[in-house]
């Protein structure tokens, strides 16, 4: 089984909001460079965020948030343009942050940044170990931040699983399932958990469980902040490109794989049709 992250989740690894909310259209841009950096970061304008955060960090008595925001913006820009120097500079900015001077939310944001940096270095199990404690501090984060932490952690664990021997992988996916089942019990609107539960079942070879969890995620999708638009697209892709082909492979008495695939697809479409 290839890495589940290769199935290209629509919402995977989205940037979490840092502090202040994104301003509404037409709101004047503030003169405070740190506020400008947050606004640009939250809007996905990472060049602007980096420039403003550097300005804020260079001021005498700069708040530690400035270095944190600079590091996170550099990492996101690296993800967008793959410029190696942005990853180097992002790590340096995060290392320089005085964690003791941050509030509780800021420290969680710093942990997420550190986990992201280690993930981008290809150290997937280490990244998951850094991020795991943040899963116990979800009350400090908004919905977008919670989703990012879940996605980064599960993605790191999935990538780590692909580096291990085949017989070791089910236990890793069991960890994903156990952790995210607990998360979903607390946050039933979590699209990330609703995706990763059937994905982990698929990776363990539990095709019936993966199918049932995908249907459950589809039904639950209306709880998500976007009413489930992204989650339904992710689940549909997972079912049609991974779960159904694996179910067809398992059939021993079906001579026509194309007909079997069409039958499973019709079942999936029928299940979706009950909850359009």
What key attributes describe this structure?
single chain, 276 residues, mainly alpha, 12 helices, 66% helix, 0% strand, elongated
Describe the structure.
The structure is a single chain. The protein has 276 residues and is mainly α. The model is unreliable at 20-26 (pLDDT under 50). It has helices spanning 33-42, 46-58, 64-81, 84-95, 104-120, 124-131, 143-162, 169-186, 191-204, 207-220, 229-250, 257-273. It contains twelve helices and no strands. The chain starts with 32 loop residues before the first helix and ends with a helix. It is elongated.
**Biggest β-sheet description:** none
What is the CA–CA distance across the termini? 30 Å
Which regions have little confidence, pLDDT < 50, spanning 5+ residues?
A: 20-26
| Tally of strands | 0
DSSP helix fraction: 55-70%
Classification by helices and strands: mainly alpha
| Order of H and E elements | HHHHHHHHHHHH
- What is the overall silhouette? elongated
Strand content: under 5%
Structure at a glance:
With 276 residues, the chain is mostly helical.
List the helices and strands and how they pair.
Elements: H1 33-42, H2 46-58, H3 64-81, H4 84-95, H5 104-120, H6 124-131, H7 143-162, H8 169-186, H9 191-204, H10 207-220, H11 229-250, H12 257-273
